[in-house]
């Protein structure tokens, strides 16, 4: 589930807490989460290495290392990076797949209940190729109305599906695609190429506003998302449509419709004010 606001929150927390710390030990408890490296090689390449920066790209949490390599974590649905001093709570410890010991006595765990997320170790060249295949960041200045209009005009797919395509626009998943479309008054099931420039402007504004507001609230926690200290996000109380199928629209009062017609995922919209 973690989308841009959740991974941004995790990355900011980690950068504040562990930038400059050295990894003193590595324990891989569930090697099936690893990509591009095995357990023994990961331990060899990480032990004694300093963490120089923690940041986000798309829905990824990236740890830059003094060795110039990068730990790249893709949390997917139930992954979390949790800091602890001593043991994790039992409810979390059971799902710790990777455990890094730090030189200040704390530990960094990658916890993943369903183990659908991944942890990769990449060289600088491999990392550059990997992130180079991703789309524009919606909070970057390069994400203009003109840029979004170009993305939409090039596709016959549903607006919501285009917004969630990480090859053209990163960080947006099901929650924030629903919310951005509602804020813009755009039907998420419309063919993207039919979106007019004024609608694209509203949609860009809706995307930027909802992502920014969710970051300020430290993300949305429905089930498994936790920040680096194990805390929950608070944006759930501000959701206008996601998870509210059948409830009244907060803008016009019409009954919100929930459908699974787009990629078999929950889409909630207002037929009264989304066109």
Summed up:
This protein is an alpha+beta fold and 275 residues long. The chain has eight helices and eleven strands.
Describe the structure.
The protein has 275 residues and is an alpha+beta fold. It has 2 domains: 4-132, N-terminal domain of MutM-like DNA repair proteins (Alpha-Beta Barrel); 145-269, Orthogonal Bundle (Helicase, Ruva Protein, domain 3), CATH 1.10.8.50. The chain has helices at residues 4-18, 39-46, 90-93, 124-132, 145-153, 159-163, 174-184, 197-216; strands spanning 23-28, 34-35, 51-57, 60-65, 70-74, 79-84, 96-102, 107-112, 118-122, 257-259, 267-269. The strands form 3 sheets. A 5-stranded mixed sheet has the order 2-9-5-4-3. Strands 1-7-8-6 form a 4-stranded antiparallel sheet, with helices on one face. The protein is globular. The mean pLDDT is 96.
Throw out a few tags for this protein:
single chain, 5-stranded mixed sheet, 275 residues, N-terminal domain of MutM-like DNA repair proteins, 29% helix, Helicase, Ruva Protein, domain 3, 4-stranded antiparallel sheet, alpha+beta
